[in-house]
User: Fold this.
Amino acid sequence: MRIACPFCGERENGEFTYLGDAAPKRPNFVVDGGESPERIEDAFYDYVYLRDNLAGVMREYWYHGGGCRSWLVAERNTVTHEFIAVTAAPGAGAASAMRAGE
Amino acid sequence: MADFSWNTQSPLERALVPGHHGVTGTQVGVMLEEVRDINLVQVMARRGKVVETVKAAKKVFGVEPPSTPGTAAGRHATLIWSGPDQFIAFSARSERDHFSKLSDAFAGVASLSDQSDGRCLIRIGGPRARQALSKFCSLDLDDRAFPPGAAATTSIDHTATNIWRGADSSDGHAVFHILVFTSFADSLWHTIQDAALEYGVQASLAHTA
Ligand SMILES: [Zn+2]
Assistant:
């Protein structure tokens, strides 16, 4: 299987490491109910432990450790293993992350 | 109190045995060289400072660093792409304050790391270099995919390497350069030499000009 790194081009999958779902965002204390200890605890529990087990297309973090050492976001079909798109994760290279937690 | 004396020595001190190896006779399919006396400086743009880093590089080397996998021939140095917004400045070992001069030139815009003694440079040429490389390198090294001036960061034998193609030799064969961490150089040298034995290997030491 080959994965197209947006920086390096097509590479064998052995050069990449899988992290997991790119959807979870680190809870923001104010937005996610910092005034309520239960709500913020729930939000963190969800962020740290709970994952959806999708059959179909999902966005995932992959790391090109055997190449350019960049974090990437891949859109992959978990049923067919087809990679639909691979883009740089926010903050790759010298770019600024779009917002905190990403 | 014990006295310590530090001697710099090549990581290939034992692995590199100059001369002919492999097939009997004098056939040389692969020329394998360690290139010594190198200067290597890793330059990484700081967050949001890509434009400034490119500008500083242009001032020092007379060329812009490659923004995609490849090399750029600059003043007294070759700039090798090593990842997004970063490159390696490769040159012949020269004056002692080479690194501090570069540090000054990139002050505040890029982070620099002196890798001159951290990496080992191996050069592979000859008519069968590509066949030997294809046994352990998963990149497409065909002329169309990897012409002179192409570069890549890739895993070879589970080891992080920088590989680039220089100018062809005078007899028209492709020449590949591989940078590897010094601690993995011995192992990688054996891998390369073993892969090339069937073509006949000429192993030697080279020094940068
Ligand atoms: Zn990459």
In short: Chain B has two domains: 19-36+118-207, 38-114. The domain at 19-36+118-207 of chain B is CATH 3.30.1360.120 (Gyrase A; domain 2). The longest helix of chain B spans residues 182-196. Helices of chain B lie at 50-61, 98-105, 129-133, 182-196.
